[in-house]
Amino acid sequence: MAEEYLTDDEQLDAVKHWFTEYAPWLTGGVLVGAAVFFGIQYFHKYTNERGLKAAAEFSAMTAALQTNDHEKSRRIAEELIKDHANSPYADQAQLTLARLDVDESQLDKAVAPLTLVMNDSKDAELRQIARLRLARVLTDQGKPDESIKLLADPIPAAFAASYHEVRGDAYLAKKDIPHAVSEYQQALAAADGGGINALLLELKLQDLGAVPAPNLSTVSVDTLKKARP
CA–CA separation, 146 vs 152, rounded Å? Predict the structure, then answer.
């Protein structure tokens, strides 16, 4: 190679020349690399801090719900939606707003947040929960046909009992007793046989004269009625 025949001074001059020519690029590369590294570190720290803040707000919202502090629950829910719109907490906040609207008999207001979660949530389970709750709201609004349409087939297996029960409620609101009984029976078949939901379904069927009364000696009727999800 030609470099092997250069004198020491000539090699030193060549190194100086190379360094002079490429030093700005080397310096720039080091600076860019450092900027990327520290940028990633800052992003992770920022994301973690936001996640912790959102979790804290969610806990506060849940605590307010448990004490029936609707005003505080609504305020925190709205802040979660505003400040953490792309997080799972925003979906939970929308569901909370809908629940508060229902509790306050403002069914029309509950439709929007439930529809948003049903259509846009990245969580498949939350989408189904929102769909079921919206169907209940529609039935309570006197729109059972819309409720039934919303819960049309195919029915997700994990929600089969709830789907059939809510459809049964919608048919009952239409005074379509045969279809209501059929839906309740399918819900009962899909429900946990030893759970509260199964007992509630048997009560509904009993009220329609479809099955004999279950043994409710250990569970009060009032308790069952309050246990509706």
Answer: 10
Tell me whether residue 79 is exposed, middle or buried, using C-beta atoms within 10 angstroms of its C-beta: 0 to 12, 13 to 18, 19 or more: middle
How many residues in the chain?
229
Question: Helices H, strands E: what count in the chain?
Answer: 10, 0
Residue 205, judged by CB atoms within 10 A of its CB (0-12, 13-18, 19+), counts as: buried
User: Tens of pLDDT along 138-148?
Assistant: 999 999 999 99
**Sorting pLDDT into bands at 50, 70 and 90, what band is 221?**
very low
Instruction: For the beta carbon of residue 180, count every other beta carbon within 10 angstroms.
Output: 22
Which amino acid is located at 110 in the chain? A
Reading the block at residue 37, the tokens are 């590294």
Containing H/E element for 23? helix 8-66
CB atoms within 10 A of CB 34: 10
Summarised one tens digit per residue, pLDDT across range 95-108 is 999 999 999 999 99
Alpha-carbon Rg for the chain, nearest whole angstrom, is 31
Residue that has been written with the tokens 């409710």 in this structure? 216
Which residues are CB-neighbours of 61 under 8 A, at least 6 positions away?
A: 72, 73, 76, 77, 80, 93, 96
Distance (Å, whole) CA 124 – CA 129: 9
Of the candidates 92, 82, 145, 163, which has an alpha carbon nearest to the alpha carbon of residue 122? 92
Is the confidence at residue 174, as pLDDT, over 90? yes
